[in-house]
Structures are given as structure tokens and as C-alpha cells.
Amino acid sequence: MAKVTYLQPDGTSRTCVNFEGMTVMHLAVGNLVDGIDALCGGVMQCGTCHCYIAPEWSERVGPPSADEAAMLEALEGVEVRPTSRLSCQIQLSEALDGLVVEVPAEQPGV
Ligand code: FES
Fold first, then answer.
1. Please, are residues 22 and 99 in contact by the beta-carbon 8 Å criterion?
2. 16 C-beta closer than 6 A to ligand 1
3. Which architecture characterizes domain 3-102 according to CATH?
4. For residues 23 and 35, is the Cβ–Cβ distance under 8 A?
5. The pTM is what?
6. How far apart are CA 60 and CA 110, in angstroms?
7. If 87 and its partner were Cys, which of 18, 27, 44, 49 is the partner (CB 3.0–4.6 Å)?
8. CA–centroid distance, residue 27 to ligand 1 (Å)
9. Residue closest to 34 by CA, chosen among 18, 58, 57, 13
10. Domain boundaries along the sequence of the chain
């Protein structure tokens, strides 16, 4: 079990608790967290699950894979930061209990 807090651009936040096997994206979508659209359902084709990992969590979450990094580089119309990740590619586990992610103001193409 892991709790994840989603920070919105307006300063509000939601903390959600995952079930086994979920990604940061699945948890957001399942809890109707605004701003994580995940239009491709998690197969790394849309980029609309883009999020920023809180700096203090970045090392523990780890870097994107080469394919994910290429997808992030190709995102248009959004600010991509060193802490950017596709939330569908972050598998939750107890090691990430307390994770904080920032939801971007805009998702690509949405
Ligand atoms: S849900 Fe489409 S890239 Fe993550």
C-alpha cells in the first residue's frame, strides 16, 4: 500500500491510497484526480499522464526508461522538467509510500 499526493496547479491537493499493482496514473484516474487524462490507457502513446515528481522523491522514483524519455522529449505544448515522468510508467509499491507528484497545468493535445 502506498499513499500518493497529487498537487494541482491551483495549490489544492488530493491524497489517494493505491491497491496492489497500480501505477501513479491508475491511482489518479481511479480517483478522478483532475489533470491526469491518460487517454491511451497506459501504453505510453499519448503523454497525457505527464506529471512532475516532487524533487525530494525524484531519486527514489528513478529516471525514465529510454522510450519514456524519448516520449517526454517529444511532448508539445507542455513544460517538460528534469523531474517529468509519465505517470503510467511508475509502478507503485510500499517503497513509494508518501510520494508527492505535481499535476501539470496542461497536458499535450488536451
Ligand atoms: S497514459 Fe498515455 S502515455 Fe501514459
1. no
2. no
3. Roll (3.10)
4. no
5. 0.95
6. 30
7. 49
8. 13
9. 13
10. 3-102
For 52, the grid coordinates are: 512532475
* Vertex 97: Cα angle to 92 and 101 (nearest 5): 75
User: 7, 13 in Cβ contact below 8 A?
Assistant: yes
Tell me the three cell numbers of residue 8. Answer: 494541482
Please give the chain's pLDDT, 110 residues, in tens.
899 999 999 999 999 999 888 999 999 999 999 999 999 999 999 999 999 999 999 999 999 999 999 999 999 889 999 999 999 999 999 999 999 999 999 998 76
Q: What b/e sequence results for 78-100 when a residue is b if at least 16 CB atoms lie within 10 Å of its CB, and e otherwise?
A: bebeeebbbbbbbebeeebeebb
Distance 12 CA to ligand 1 centre (A): 23
Is residue 93 lining ligand 1, measured as CB closer than 6 Å?
Answer: no
Distance CA 38, CA 6 (A): 15
Distance 33 CA to ligand 1 centre (A): 15
